[in-house]
Amino acid sequence: MEELAIEARGINKSYRKVKALTDIDLSIRKGEIFGLIGPDGAGKTSLFRILTTLSLPDSGTASVCGFDVIKDLPQIRRRIGYMPGHFALYQDLSVEENLKFYATVFGTTVEENYDNIKEIYSQIEMFKDRKAGALSGGMKQKLALCCALVHKPEVLFLDEPTTGVDAVSRKEFWTMLQRIRKGGVSIFVSTPYMDEASLCDRIALIMNGSIIDTGTPAEIISHYPHRLFSVSNSDLFGTLKLLRGEEGIIRCASFGAVCHVAVAQDGPDEKRILEILEKGGLEGSTVEPMKPGIEDCFMNLS
Fold first, then answer.
1. If you average pLDDT over residues 106-129, what whole number do you get?
2. Considering only CA atoms, which of 64, 54, 72 is closest in space to residue 154?
3. Is the pLDDT of residue 293 over 60?
4. Residue 106, Cβ neighbours under 10 Å: how many?
5. pLDDT of 179-189, one tens digit each?
6. Does the pLDDT of residue 2 top 80, yes or no?
7. Do residues 36 and 180 share a domain?
8. How many angstroms separate the Cα of 176 from the Cα of each of 20, 85, 99, 143?
9. Which of 125, 166, 183, 276 is most deeply buried (CB count within 10 A of its CB)?
């Protein structure tokens, strides 16, 4: 039987009349990067707050490192690192002061655990005397990660860690996560960015407080039931207007400079889609079959 870092069964949570989580079931294995993928308001932070002992579920059970999130709060808090979605460090303290403070909270020192954070901290150590509030987004992210790792946690919770961070820093951050995982740390990360799903070992898609699919990125993509085409031309709005509602076309959505068109198995092929566009006055269109991504799967499931 495989060892689990996190297990949740039948978790429900409401805020007055607002249902935040409905019957959440999750099993996260030790040593894996597990992604919780969903838009803002889907329930990601509510679940993280329960699993990190900051909030109580209305019903259901959950455990982290084998300890119950309600009964064993002290044992869990000693074993986890948590990086919330907003920058939660002390902005008027320096980089070094923040790191020393968080080490002290967990009864350790930076020196004792320096090897655990040196690969990340070495990138910001030159700014150790700078106040945390004066750091760039990417540097704040690295400092927050160092503070979450300074006590050698068994499980690392990262709630939307790359929101508002530039593309280069996002890439660097995920490279760091891969190295942290190799050190034996289990990582549970939430993100609204669908492209980050492929960087996880397994993922769960969440929408309106409910899990709509779980598996490896490849498994979820393999469940996609429709044919998919990429359509490009100079008038994306016109393309959406012409194709939406056409018989056999299930969904048409813009993805950057192109449209993704989901078609039923007996629906129109490339030639027919091109005819529809040309008949509607959109000359010079390109229609090509394509493989679905996680975002296509999410849109189909939701």
1. 89
2. 64
3. yes
4. 16
5. 899 888 999 99
6. no
7. yes
8. 31, 18, 18, 13
9. 276
